[in-house]
Amino acid sequence: MVLLTACSSDNNSEENADKGEGNLGTKEVELATDTYLSNIGATHLVKLLLEEVGYDVTVTSTDVGIEFSGLADGSSDASVGLWLPTTHASYWEKYKDKLDKISMVTEKVELGLTVPSYMEDIDTIEDLANNKNNIGKKLDWTITGISPGAGEMKLTKNEVMPAYGLDENWELQSSSGPTMAAALTRAIDNKEPIVVTLWTPHWTFNKFDLKILKDPKNKYGDPDNVYSASRKGFKEDSPLAYKIIKAFRLTKKQNQNIMLNIQNGMSNEDAAKEFLKNNPDFKEKILSKAKGE
């Protein structure tokens, strides 16, 4: 494996920042993430990669809106969890002039209203709107959601529900990612109906047989891609960190494996370490690419 080492000097002057592709620059890096396992797992994987070459990395987990504003005002350095062009569109439009989009991390991530596959008669969002087989009454007209600031929640409330007439009878109940997953797990354990806001990658798709309801009006839009982004100036301040993040790629299946280990009790960092242990070529490929740029 190619080993990347820091320059011997401890200062972070502009002179050191020009010493070449292997230079660390500013060693302290703060990564921002929201509170969802799909982004938490990826973020801790990047943390390990950056620490491998000598960076001191802090991970800050917060609400999506604060994540974006923190990147924009320089409170944090980078994120690997921006869902575009749809899910985080409102945040991107607000802050994009103060951010640098780096690269695509994961392609074709989906989101939508999701049910257990044993709900055979419910296949589309229109089935909910039409109260097929009295599904509204069975669920007390409630869709189990996640945190109210999440892009999917805003999209569901402001676009999807009005388009299908769900806003007339149905309620989108705010909770959190873990609370939603716990409710889904309980329902499946009891083979009861439930509708949740869900997305891929998510560990529940590894554990349960689920289906995302068809969206014939395409109000959730085409699948997003997940991107990395940074504050302005990060590329110059920590050049090798920027290159590693630019080289970072993670498939949905890889992410879901990390997420499932976290869900099963591993710490965020231990789950990332377990992934690197089981995928020894992953680290070498990213670090080699970063050095070669």
From TrEMBL:
Its main location: membrane. Residues 27-278 form the ABC-type glycine betaine transport system substrate-binding domain. This is ABC-type glycine betaine transport system substrate-binding domain-containing protein. It is found in: Cell membrane. It comes from Virgibacillus siamensis. Keywords: Cell membrane, Membrane, Transport. InterPro entries: ABC_Gly_betaine_transp_sub-bd (IPR007210). Residues 6-25 are annotated as: Disordered.
